[in-house]
Specification:
Helix content is 24%, strand content 25%. By secondary structure, it is of the alpha/beta class. The protein folds into three domains: 3-61 and 124-195 and 299-388, FAD/NAD(P)-binding domain, CATH 3.50.50; 203-296, 2-Layer Sandwich (Alpha-Beta Plaits); 401-505, Glutaredoxin (3-Layer(aba) Sandwich), CATH 3.40.30.120. Strands 1, 2, 7, 8, 9, 10, 18 and 19 form an eight-stranded mixed sheet that branches. A seven-stranded mixed sheet has the order 5-4-13-14-15-12-16. A five-stranded mixed sheet has the order 21-27-26-24-25, with helices on one face. Pfam families: FAD_binding_3, Rng_hyd_C. Residues 22-372 form the FAD-binding domain. InterPro entries: FAD-bd, FAD/NAD-bd_sf, RIFMO-like. Its cofactor is FAD.
Length: 509
């Protein structure tokens, strides 16, 4: 396909990249690439997403959306659609020889909290999440060039030139590889992956439909091997299956493990045989196979998340076992971290050194989530508070400066620099309402401290007397909802902006 005739889904023409000035090229239209493109579009950054496939990903694979990711989607304006399309994970039901053995709680129940508007995970088929993000991107004026494959990259001091399979090229100031675990961009950059196989046995994942009455939709059905506890899952050492109803649609997601040395058969007949061999259902009970794929669970981390003007995000940077539902969520949050930094550099002229903090912050988090996913896969950790990702933060980041607390004062969870800013009352509303949008937020709590002149478009200032979670003082909250700086006076804020290359937040900078 010629580059100047690429079309988006729905037949809407995409402007030829050869004729456009593209600031950011995003390679891959999965959850990572679409999230990043949405964030850049609302910041006025000219970005283009290119996708090798001719359409959006068709399967339910990454179906668990964690509370922290729901907060990201809230900020991007899509959480209503996500919640409408999703549902709470059903309680597990253990089966043995066609007989129900009892319910099994797969997830620790979260405690309700006013600091987190979304308490637990939501199940949404990955294809539906991508449809929602794609619709939001087009609403924001962005686009995806489907059927466009990047085969190589060349960098110079001013930008990146991407070579395409059809012989065309795209020029951009920066590029982001969001093209999955087998990332062609990562390979082109020569960046290795450290890690390996979590489970040597192949697994099958498929979207299926089941004859009415053959299996209820009230439970997440688990079929462990003889003698294995359901918590062992893939660590059981034998064949197993899990069949989960997907909310809002007639489909179920099937996950099956194979230990006979054979590769999974992805044909409808093969999927039916896998169900019949591991459950009390017959092959005929599977009325339709809508999508199927196979994989071997891996845990691998890219040796670097950046090479010059090219960044790695999502599965291109870290590959997870699906256990615990961390892959998609960690990936979306990569994009959320990178988006505001690219926007602040490209739209507002911040020092490019700000971009160095992407790898500094996200590679540590990805490593931690890889370890958690692996432990859950092996049955040594549960799906609890850590999987919800609300406690992740950047206290050790060079962008985090805690000057409000005195030496020796315990760091209260959620209110120290580097932490996710918890929701709290602000005047007649809520802090999360004030945070929503691409700006920084300066929260002044029970203080009349003077403030330096700040760019009112880049920094929104809010005063509150409420001290339910926040001690008296000043809190500069980043666009991604993490506290960057805490302090008591404007001089401390000035020093922070200078030291972190964020002088652009000051008025007249």
């Amino acid at each position: 396909m010629a580059l100047n005739s690429v079309k988006a889904i729905g037949g809407n023409p995409v402007e030829s990249p050869l004729a456009a000035t593209v600031e950011v090229l995003v390679v891959g239209a999965g959850p990572t690439g679409l999230t990043l493109a949405c964030d850049l579009a609302r910041r006025g950054v000219r970005a283009l997403v290119v996708e090798r496939a001719t359409g959006l990903f068709p399967g339910s694979r990454g179906k668990g959306v964690q509370p922290r990711t729901l907060e990201v989607f809230d900020d991007l304006g899509v959480v209503g659609a996500i919640l409408a399309a999703g549902g709470a994970p059903p309680v597990g039901m253990v089966w043995r020889d066609g007989v129900r053995q009892g319910e099994y709680r797969m997830f620790d129940e979260p405690e309700p909290s006013g600091s987190a508007p979304y308490a637990g995970p939501v199940l949404v088929p990955q294809w539906r999440t991508q449809e929602i993000l794609y619709a939001r991107l087009t609403e924001l004026g962005g686009s995806v060039a489907f059927g466009t494959e990047v085969t190589g990259l060349a960098q110079d001091a001013d930008g990146v030139t991407a070579s395409l399979a059809d012989g065309g090229t795209i020029r951009a100031a920066y590029a982001v590889a969001a093209d999955g675990g087998r990332s062609a961009v990562r390979r082109a950059l020569g960046i290795g992956m450290t890690g390996g196989t979590v489970d040597p046995q192949p697994m099958l994942v498929a979207d299926i439909r089941i004859a009415e009455g053959a299996l209820d939709r009230d439970n997440w059905h688990v079929f462990p091997p003889e003698g294995a506890h359901p918590a062992e899952g893939a660590a059981s050492g034998g064949d197993f299956a899990a069949i989960c109803p997907l909310p809002g649609i007639p489909d179920f997601q099937l996950v099956a493990r194979f230990t006979d040395g054979a590769e999974p058969d992805l044909s409808p007949e093969g999927v039916r045989a896998a169900v019949a061999a591991r459950t009390h259902l017959t092959g005929a009970d599977v009325t339709e196979v809508r999508w199927a794929s196979d994989f071997r669970p891996r845990a691998a981390l890219a040796d670097a998340f950046r090479a010059g003007r090219v960044f790695l995000a999502g599965d291109a940077a870290h590959v997870h076992s699906p256990a615990g539902g961390q892959g998609l969520n960690t990936s979306v949050q990569d994009a959320y971290n990178l988006g505001w930094k690219l926007g602040t550099v490209l739209r507002h002229g911040a020092d490019t050194g700000l971009l160095d903090t992407y790898e500094e912050e996200r590679r540590v988090v990805a490593a931690r989530m890889l370890d958690l996913s692996t432990r859950i896969h092996h049955g040594t950790s549960r799906r609890g508070a850590a999987t919800r990702q609300l406690g992740l933060g950047y206290r050790e980041s060079s962008l985090s400066a805690e000057t409000l607390l005195t030496a020796g004062t315990p760091l209260t969870a959620g209110t120290s620099a580097g932490d996710r800013a918890p929701d709290a009352p602000v005047g007649a509303g809520r802090l999360f309402d004030a945070l929503r949008g691409p700006h920084f937020t300066l929260l002044a709590v029970a203080t009349d401290a003077g403030l330096p002149p700040l760019d009112s478009d880049l920094v929104h200032v809010h005063h509150t007397a409420e001290r339910t979670l926040y001690a008296a003082g000043l809190y500069l909250i980043r666009p991604d909802g993490y506290i960057g700086w805490t302090g008591r006076d404007q001089e401390g804020l000035r020093k922070y902006l200078t030291s972190t290359k964020l002088e652009v937040l000051a008025s007249g900078a």
